[in-house]
Amino acid sequence: MIGHAYDWIKIGHLFSVFAWMAGIFYLPRLFVYHADAEPGSVQSETFKVMERRLIKGIMQPAMIGSWGFGLWLGIKGDWFTGASWLWLKIAFVVALTAYHVHLDVWRKAFARDANRHTSRFFRMINELPTLILLAILALVVLKPF
Description:
- By secondary structure, the chain is mostly helical.
- 81% of the residues lie in helices and 0% in strands.
- Helix 1 runs antiparallel to helix 2 (42-76) and helix 2 runs antiparallel to helix 3.
């Protein structure tokens, strides 16, 4: 139907999504511990480096790859016509992208020693991408409409 290239594009998409989601789950966990560290301490400074490297070196490239490979799959597979579920999936991916942007805003606040949130806040906010991911997986696997 579509060819061997489609499978490689899908592999690129899945790899990017896995890397992005790993970061989306891990960064708020770092924030949980960072929120309890004394600003300016060695521990706090170490978290700053870890958080910056995670978002710049892994999460942002993975997010770009997720979008790029995903859109390429949609075009190559002609998914944009007749696949209503895909539009809802894209809406959820937009929500994950907004969450990603907020994570970077919070990371920058930590970098300035200006975090205003508690570790409890970051524990709670870390549940949101789990729900979004579950919805995306349900849409992709079940293709309900």
